[in-house]
Write a structure and sequence with these properties.
Rossmann fold, globular, two-stranded antiparallel ribbon, 263 residues, alpha/beta
Length: 263
């Protein structure tokens, strides 16, 4: 039977802490050399897939800008943006992921702080606290998005921007094993999909591993319409192939939006 009562925050916190220990690619801190280049203005960061984010989506000068890296731990984007001059806060559900940011900040003397929590609850921050929210592909790890967009809108200053990346929900149509092992696109799931509604705990353990993070598909209405409903104005859109999925040769794996809180 589906395991609908599982706590996604606690489960995914433990899952990502384990990914850090295993050396997950999204948990590998940037190097000293990358930080030094960022200090010289030579930098790029990833919002979707492995594509560098369009620099025009960020302020031309990050010096003194208050920037929230939302669900963006791992010692990657946050340290680079801090080295580029921003006052960075990294907010993440995983102590292990935040530990990677703390490691780089201490190693390289960066103006960066970390806060632990669920991306749907930013009550640790006051209204109009940030100039930019940078939210790479991560909201697939929570079951509902409306609170995420409402909180992003609240903590941004008027005129502030939200950069959000998210997974193409069509990726969840396909059989996981056939896709990963043989590159075959076999449709088996009806959308919306979630690990907890489509599989029991025993089935998940067999297919993905007992400690794997729980994932949830979200409609484009929830992703894009949810930002509009929260009050944002969309000013940019981009897409990219999935970085490691066989579906990349047929469709975009990721979408990204640039949204502004009206001034």
């Amino acid at each position: 039977m589906p395991d609908r009562d599982v706590d996604p925050v606690a489960h995914n916190r433990a899952a990502w802490d384990k990914y850090v220990q295993e050396g997950n690619e999204w948990s590998t801190p940037v190097s000293v050399e990358e930080v030094e280049r960022a200090r010289r203005g030579e930098w790029s960061i990833v919002l979707i897939g492995r594509e560098p984010v369009d620099r025009s989506w960020l302020p031309a000068d990050l010096t003194g800008k208050d920037l929230l890296c939302l669900a963006s731990g791992g010692g990657q984007q946050g340290p680079i943006l801090a080295a580029a001059g921003a006052r960075v806060t990294v907010f993440d559900n995983s102590p292990g992921q935040l530990g990677q940011d703390q490691l780089v900040a201490a190693r390289d003397g960066l103006d960066l702080r970390t806060v632990l929590g669920d991306m749907r609850d930013l009550s640790a921050f006051g209204d109009a606290t940030f100039d930019v929210v940078f939210h790479p592909v991560s909201n697939l790890f929570v079951p509902d998005l409306a609170p995420v967009w409402r909180e992003c809108f609240r903590v941004l200053r008027p005129g502030g921007t939200l950069l959000a990346g998210f997974l193409n929900p069509d990726a969840y149509l396909f059989d996981h094993e056939a896709l990963d092992e043989r590159g075959e696109l076999i449709v088996v799931h009806k959308l919306p999909y979630s690990d907890v509604t489509h599989y029991s705990a025993e089935e998940r353990a067999t297919k993905f591993g007992a400690d794997a993070a729980l994932e949830y598909s979200h409609t484009l209405t929830a992703q894009i319409g949810g930002q509009l409903a929260a009050g944002f104005v969309l000013t940019g859109f981009a897409e990219a192939p999935h970085h490691s999925d066989a579906s990349a040769q047929y469709m975009s794996g990721y979408f990204a939006t640039l949204a502004v809180k009206p001034g």
